[in-house]
User: Which sequence fits this backbone?
């Protein structure tokens, strides 16, 4: 599968309220996220999951959203400010091949990689950069759209995560999605 980047102008469409009927962020995230956590969200777009992540981590937690596209992050922060959650969210513009998260080594409790790993030029490089940032027993919820991402590509993504030192621990059910929870050993 050839990597591509979701165009910024699709951001508002990804945040349509009806999407919550089939992919409710609170239902998907609450098994993994608690008050006070540090959460890393690569590829958040305009923040479909980010605002709920910020609510779940509470006033003592932090969400770090990293995206290639400044317009996506600007839209996310407009929505966060409107919801009164902007103080809990830090945004970072990523480089083409690196997220620029070396300063987070050993400090991330949870990372959400939702429908974005297939857009990367190298899942191996992505997981090699992400894995060291996780705390012991920290985890990544990787979700890819079924049908859009072939099963064999998803299997290769899981193998790339495991090669970076993560361990597959479960496969939660999310509508029309391929899923994996990968834990730091």
Assistant:
């Amino acid at each position: 599968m050839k990597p591509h980047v979701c165009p910024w102008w699709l951001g508002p469409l990804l945040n349509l309220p009806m999407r919550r009927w089939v992919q409710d962020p609170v239902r998907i995230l609450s098994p993994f996220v608690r008050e006070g956590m540090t959460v890393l969200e690569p590829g958040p777009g305009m923040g479909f999951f980010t605002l709920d992540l910020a609510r779940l981590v509470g006033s003592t937690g932090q969400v770090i959203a990293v995206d290639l596209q400044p317009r996506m992050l600007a839209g996310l922060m407009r929505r966060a400010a409107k919801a009164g959650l902007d103080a809990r969210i830090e945004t970072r513009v990523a480089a083409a091949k690196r997220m620029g998260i070396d300063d987070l080594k050993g400090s991330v409790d949870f990372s959400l990689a939702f429908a974005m790993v297939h857009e990367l030029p190298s899942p191996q490089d992505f997981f090699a950069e992400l894995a060291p940032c996780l705390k012991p027993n920290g985890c990544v919820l990787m979700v890819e759209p079924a049908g859009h991402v072939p099963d064999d590509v998803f299997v290769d993504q899981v193998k790339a995560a495991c090669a970076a030192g993560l361990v597959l621990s479960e496969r939660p059910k999310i509508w029309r999605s391929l899923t994996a929870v990968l834990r730091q050993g």
